[in-house]
Amino acid sequence: MQIGAPPRPPARVATLRRDHWWVRPAGTAFFLGTLTAYAIWTGFQTSHFAVGSYVSPLFSPCIATDCGSRADVVIIGSWWKWSPALLVMAVPIGVRATCYYYRKLYYRSFWLSPPACAVTEPHARYSGESRLPLVLQNVHRYFWAASILVAAMLTADAVDAFRQPGGIGIGVGTVLISLNGIAFWAYLLSCHACRHFAGGGLRSQFAHPIRHHLWRLTSRLNARHGLFALISLPLVMFTDGYIRLVAAGIIADPHILVFG
């Protein structure tokens, strides 16, 4: 200890940090909390989720008769009285909620486990993800596999969004739906589960050159997984909000015809 230095604080002090370390977890909590609240509200809506060739990504694939002409394939009959979104939102919500990157965000911001580096967490005991309910995080790989089907449907929605009144064209909704599909694909292909699917479980990757090439590609994408996660989530909500405003007649969707 340096001569003349102040005595060390007692062990009960949460942290010695003097910076505004709480800003990041608080901002993350506000960011995730706002988007979650919007998704919950949207999930119970039964109208204004589609207009023309546009359909909200939170309602895709639309599998209920209530989807009307926007139904991709009718699996649920007229007995379903709630929002069609409740039938399909479990998969994209599940893959994000069990994602390694999102876990870090909400563990730190909501559960304070820990809230920041070099900051003591308030929990007296720590069992990791070995007990209920956190042991259920291991189902992430299954949600990821199911999300591939959702991403394929979003791709079909993006192609269909080029169908404008009077011909084939591009509208603001077309751009948003297409960007949302690209962002979701980037999020899935950069996922740790995708990286393991591409090259995990092999004794020798060089004996499997195709999987080794895919593993290297997904590894490069994996370095930006957090960025794709932060871009894709708000983009879903923004796209849904735009389609709702157009469907409600509050705003018009500017578009340009390419082939009339």
Description:
With 260 residues, the chain is mainly alpha-helical. It has helices at residues 23-43, 90-97, 100-109, 140-160, 172-189, 192-199, 209-222, 225-247; strands at residues 50-51, 54-55, 163-164, 167-171, 255-259. It has one domain. Helix content is 47%, strand content 6%. β1 (50-51) and β2 form a beta hairpin. The model has no long low-confidence stretch (mean pLDDT 89).
Brief descriptors of the model:
two-stranded antiparallel sheet, single chain, mainly alpha, 260 residues, three-stranded antiparallel β-sheet
Quick recap of the structure?
The protein is mainly alpha-helical.
State the major sheet: 3 strands, antiparallel
Portion in strands:
5-15%
Q: Strand order of the main beta sheet, please?
A: 3-4-5
Count of DSSP H/I helices: 8
Mean pLDDT: 89
Structural class: mainly alpha
Helix-strand layout with pairing:
Blueprint: H1 23-43, E1 50-51, E2 54-55, H2 90-97, H3 100-109, H4 140-160, E3 163-164, E4 167-171, H5 172-189, H6 192-199, H7 209-222, H8 225-247, E5 255-259
Antiparallel strand pairs: 1-2, 3-4, 4-5
